[in-house]
Amino acid sequence: MIGNKLQENENIKPNSLEMRKLKETFPQYFNNKGEFEIDKFKDFLKQEEVEISKEGYELKFLGKSYAKYLSSLETETYISPDIKHNSKEENKDSENLYIVGDNIDALKHLLSSYTGEIKCIYIDPPYNTGKDGFVYSDDFQFNSAELSQKIGITEDEAQRIINLSGMSTHSAWLTFMYPRLALSRDLLADDGLIFISIDDNEQANLKLICDEIFGEENFIADLKWANKEGGGSSDSKLFRVKDEHILVYAKFIYNSEVKGLPPSNIERYKESDAHEQTRGKYYLQKLGMGSIQYSESMDYPITMEDGTILYPADNNSGRRAIWRWSKEKYLWGIENDYIVSKQDKEGNWVLYTKQYLNADNEGNLIERTQIPMGIISEFSSTQGSKELSKLGLDGFFSYPKPTSLINYLIDRISGNDFICLDFFSGSSTTADSIFQLNSKDNGRRKFVMVQIAEKLKPSTHAYQAGFRTIDEIARERIKRAAQKIKEETDADIDYGYKLYYLESPEEKTLLDLENFEPEVKFITDDMVSVFDNEHSSGKESILATWLNEDGYGLTRTSIPYKLENYQANLMDKSLYLIDEGLEDQDVMTLIKRIENEELDITRVVIYVHSVRFSVLQELRKNLKVLRNNKNVSLIERF
Predict the structure, then answer these.
(1) Looking at the domain assignment, is residue 191 inside a domain?
(2) Which stretch of DSSP H or E encloses residue 604?
(3) Is the pTM value of this prediction over 0.90?
(4) DSSP bridge partners of 562
C-alpha cells in the first residue's frame, strides 16, 4: 500500500519540498532535464521590478538540514479508521476529525486532502522548560555515513544530529518543530491564521523560524497572555513573570483579516425599533451641539409637529450652537427613521439621532468593532483546570489551556464555517471550544485534533482512573463536553467526530512492499490482511488511506460497487480494486460498463498485490483501447 512512497523516499533531499513547490509555481523556468534556469528567472524578476537583496539573516542550528529532509519525506504510515466508533449515530456523518499518531505523519496525510483548506491553526507545543518532559525522539533508521550522504553533510555533523535523540537542547527542540511548522503552512488557507503558544524559553527561536517559514511580512503579533492569577510565578530571579506568548502569523497577510471585538460601550445600545433585525439596537444622541467652528449651513430652523420652530440651543460654553447634521441630512434622517423628537419635563422639544450598532449614519450596514489589544488578561490558566474538574477529569492534565482563551483566538477568524486544526491537541481544549462557539451562533466550524498515543505513568490520577494514553483522556473530554453543551444549549450542531489511527507496517511487510514484483506474485501472498488491526480490516485501512491520498478527505464514505463476482469501491469518478479475487470476467464487465456509459469514471486504482499478473495485464490492455474515445487512467499502487 505504501510501496510507492518507500521508493520515492529513496531519492528525497533536504530541499525536495521547496523544489516541488518551485516546480508547481514556476514550471516555465525548468527545462526538459528538470534544471532550473536561474538567468531566465532573474530576467522575469527584473521585468516585474522586483528588487533582489544580497543581505539576509537566518537562524542556523544543528539539525536544520535534517529537519528540512524530514519535511520532504513521504510518511510511511497508513490510516486506520475506527470502524466501530465511526459508525455510531453521533459520528457517522460528523465532519470533525481526531487522529491518533505522530503529528508529523498526520500533517503529511492531511496535506493530501486539506492543502490550503485550514483557516485556523492553534497549537500549544512543548515549551522546552526543562521541566515539561520534552526530549527529542527519533528512531534514526540509518547510521552517520548514510545520513551524511542523504542530506549532504559531514559524517561528524551527521553523528551529532543522531545524538540529538533523547536530548532537550535548543537545537533538538528546533529540529522537532521546524518540519511540523513547515508542513502546517501548506495546510493554511490563503486567508488563514496560525496561533502558537510559547513561553520565554523558546519564544525568540520560535519567532526566527516562523519568520523563515511563514515570512517576516506575514507576522501579525506577539500577543501576551497574562495567564497567572495574582503576582505571577518566580521563574525569573529578578521579576515575577505572569504571562506567556502567543505568536500569530498569516499565510498571506494581504488576504487575512483579524475580526474585531464588540465595542467596549456596547451596553449603550439598548433601544429597539422596527429595524433591529438589520440595524441592531441603538442609543440616542442629541442633534444639537456647541461648536468651536460655527457653520451657517448647520444653523437652520426645524418645524416641529405642533408648529414650534426649533433652533440649535446655545449652552453656557460660549460657543454658538449648530445642528450636527445639515438640513439635507436631517431630511434624509426623517425619511429613513434616524430622527427621534421628544419633549423634556418643561415641555421643550429635543431632537435626537439614532446611533445604531450595525448601521452608520449614512444607512450602510456595518459591523461595529474595536481592534483587539495585544495583551490578553481576562483568562487565567486555572480556569482550564476548573473546566476539566467540572467534566470529572480533575488533575488529569497539567496547565490545560482554558476554553475562554481558545474561544477568544478562534473568534478572531472571520466567519463561522471553517476548519480549525490543533496538532498538539493535548486535552482537546480546542475541540471543546469549537463546540462552544458553534452552539452560540449555530456555526459550522470543524475541528481536526491530532495527538500521539503518549503512555501515562501508573502513578498518575488518569492511569488510576483507567486511562492508559493521553488521547484516551482527550477523547473522553470531547465526549463529556459535547454532552454538557448539548444539555445546556440544545443547539443543533455537530457533536461527533471521526476517529483514525496512524499505524506503521511491520518490518517484514515493509520489505515485502519494497521488493514486490507483480510478475512473480504467488497466489498465497496476502498483502491485504497484513494491515488488519483492532480498529479496522486491512481493506478498510487501505481504502481510507487511498481516499485521503486522492483528495477525498477523511469524512466521506465510498460505496460498494459489484462487478461480475468482485466487490469494488466507488468514490465519485474513482473505482478502487483492493481485495483479492479480481478475474478476467470482472475486467470485461468493468470495460463493458465504461463503454456503455453505465459507469462514469476517470480512474481505476488497483492494489497490484491482490491481482494475478495476467489479470493485471488484461486490465492494462483493455483500458488503453476503450471505445467511444473514453479515457480512464489506471493507477497501480503497491
Answers:
(1) yes
(2) strand 603-607
(3) no
(4) 567
- C-alpha cell recorded at residue 265: 460601550
Look at residues 306, 321, 356 and tell me which one is the last residue of a structural domain: 356
b/e map 156-167, b = 16+ CB within 10 Å: ebbeebbebeee
Q: Are residues 457 and 597 in the same domain?
A: no
Q: What's the CA gap between 624 and 633, in Å, rounded?
A: 8
Q: Which amino acid is at 204?
A: A
Q: What is the pLDDT of residue 614?
A: 95
Distances (CA, A) of 117 to 376, 525, 551, 615: 28, 39, 11, 39
How many Å apart are CA 33 and CA 31, to the nearest integer? 5
Which cell is 89 given?
449515530
The stretch 613-634 carries a mean pLDDT of 95
Contacts of 469 by beta carbon, 8 Å cutoff, 6+ apart: 453, 454, 455, 456
3-state class (DSSP) for residue 350: strand
Residue 536 domain boundaries: 522-637
Grid-cell match 497501480, residue found: 636
Sheet containing strand 244-250, edge to edge, reads 78-81, 498-503, 97-100, 446-451, 419-422, 118-123, 188-198, 244-250, 219-225, 375-376
Q: Is residue 41 part of a domain?
A: yes
How far is residue 74's CA from residue 66's CA, in Å, rounded to a whole number? 14
Q: Which residue has the higher pLDDT, 524 or 566?
A: 566
What is the distance between the alpha carbons of residues 79 and 56, in angstroms, rounded to a whole number?
41
Residues in the chain: 638
Distance CA 197, CA 71 (A): 22
Give one word for 101, left, alpha or beta, with left for phi > 0 and alpha for psi -120 to 50: left
- Report how far residue 124's alpha carbon sits from residue 490's, in angstroms, rounded to the nearest whole number: 30
- Where b means 16+ CB within 10 Å and e means fewer, 595-630 reads eeeebebeebbbbbbbbbeebbebbeebbeeeeeee
Rounded CA separation 373/351 (Å): 36
